[in-house]
Amino acid sequence: MMAEKQTGHIYTVSILTREIKTLLEETFPFIWVTGEISNYSVPSSGHSYFTLKDQQASIQAVIFKNQKLKLRFEPENGIKIYGLARLSIYEPRGTYQLIFEHLEPEGIGSIQIAFEQLKRKLSDKGYFDQKFKKPIPFLSSNICIITSGTGAALRDIIHISKRRFSNINLEVLPVKVQGAGAEQEIIEAIHFANKRQKAQVIILARGGGSIENFSAFNSELVADAVFLSKIPIITGVGHETDFTIADFVADLRAPTPSAAAELAIPDKQILTQRVFELRQRLDKSIFVRISHLNDMIASLTYRIKIPEMIIYSHRFKVEELELRLKNQIKNAIRNHKDKINGLTDMLMHHFYVIFQRNKIKQLELMSKLKALSPLSVLSRGYSITRFAFDKKIITDSIYVKPKDRLEIILSKGRLISTVEKVNG
Asked: Which of 134, 139, 175, 178 could be disulfide-bonded to 185 (CB atoms 3.0-4.6 Å)?
């Protein structure tokens, strides 16, 4: 038999879940938890959902949008973190989860994580590509310096400028290089310099410090401003071993502010010495060239003859060529005349032969024509009879009837007769 139901309190699912939720949240109000992120996703709400796991277990977790905005890195799969969370139950599904208020990467700082993530993002966008790097002018007449107005970096740059090339004009745009507002001031200074279009190069600099002090130079917005600047930018941030995002994006990176000034400003003394050496080489080259030309002039002068002799020599050559030309023309005329005479004789002979041949042929034809002529037949005693009215020649008696008038043609004279009888 089914055991009788005990008389104790009966929980509904909702009430039981709510009481467990209250018990968990009161027992574990805030706890520090560590583990590895997996199944990380961010739906349209902006909240981040993921699984926190170790080798033996896993638990669902969430960090809401407002708390995530305070993080200095972007959570992603595979990162080991530790964070402050409260334990709660998601009542519709009856599952418990960690709701994180703060996260930090384990083993490496969040600032370094954020640095590497932004570096990878900008590299994928092509911000570091050499093809986008603008050339640094060899000698700028105006240099814009964006740095702290009171820092050692500015003093070092001014000192280097005076020592190397005091004629160059320096324009200082003082900005905060760390702390609240530093990022925006740097961006506005870059935009201002580009809007004025007065400087040929920009030096973006600050002195040394910790990685936290370089946050303004590791900003994505500052990287955008450096990349979009029409004026080439040289960065000199911190010490030689310090690298910032701005350094990777800039057209040229210097290890220190002083080195940035040396890259932007040539040494006037060295340039002067170089100009002096080039001038000496040019003078020597010109002297050698002039000497060579003088030698050529002297040689040509020696080889030039008296103008009258040159004219006489050319006149003699002209007369000789004229005589040779006349002889050639005479010979040509003579040769052509002989050819014409020969051709004329040949033509006359050919014409005579053809004429004799045609004459003989004509006589033969005339003889044949004479033999076949009707007059020749009539002279031998024959006659031609034809009708008198239509002149039609009669070749058969069947065409003639009595009383027809006929014309008889003789060798000499003609007869008109009338037919009396026709014999067949």
From this structure: 175
Instruction: Report if pTM > 0.70.
Output: no
Among 81, 71, 101, which Cα is nearest to 36's?
81
Do 214 and 238 contact (CB within 8 A), yes or no?
A: yes
| pLDDT at 255 > cutoff 70 | yes
- Is residue 5 predicted with pLDDT exceeding 70? no
Question: Which amino acid, 24?
Answer: L
Task: Please say if the pLDDT value at position 1 is more than 70.
Answer: no
**3-state class of 41 per DSSP?**
strand
What is the token pair recorded at 184? Answer: 């925006």
Q: How far is CA 207 from CA 170, 177, 242, 281, in A?
A: 19, 9, 10, 43
Helices (H), 250-306: 257-264, 268-303
pLDDT digits (tens, 9 = 90+) for 390-420: 888 888 888 888 888 988 888 788 888 888 8
Q: What type of residue is 279?
A: R
C-alpha of 379 from chain center: 109
- Give, in order, the Cα–Cα distances in Å from 31 to each of 28, 66, 73, 109: 6, 20, 21, 20
Asked if residues 374 and 343 have their Cβ atoms less than 8 Å apart, the reply is no
pLDDT tens digit string along 52-97? 998 889 899 999 999 988 887 888 888 888 888 888 888 888 888 9
**Helix or strand or coil: residue 146?**
strand
SS3 85: strand
User: Could you say which DSSP state residue 393 is in?
Assistant: B
The b/e string for 169-183 (b: 16+ C-beta within 10 A; e otherwise) is ebebbebbbbeeebb
Q: Is 204's pLDDT higher than 60?
A: yes
Q: Which residues contact 137 (CB under 8 A, 6 or more apart)?
A: 200, 201, 232
All residues at 6 or more sequence positions from 97 whose CB lies less than 8 Å from its CB, including other chains:
59, 60, 61, 62, 87, 88, 89, 90
Phi, psi of 359 (to 5 degrees): -65, -45
Of the candidate ranges 116-125, 163-172, 306-315, 321-330, the one whose mean pLDDT is the lowest: 306-315
Q: How many angstroms separate the CA atoms of 207 and 254, rounded?
A: 12
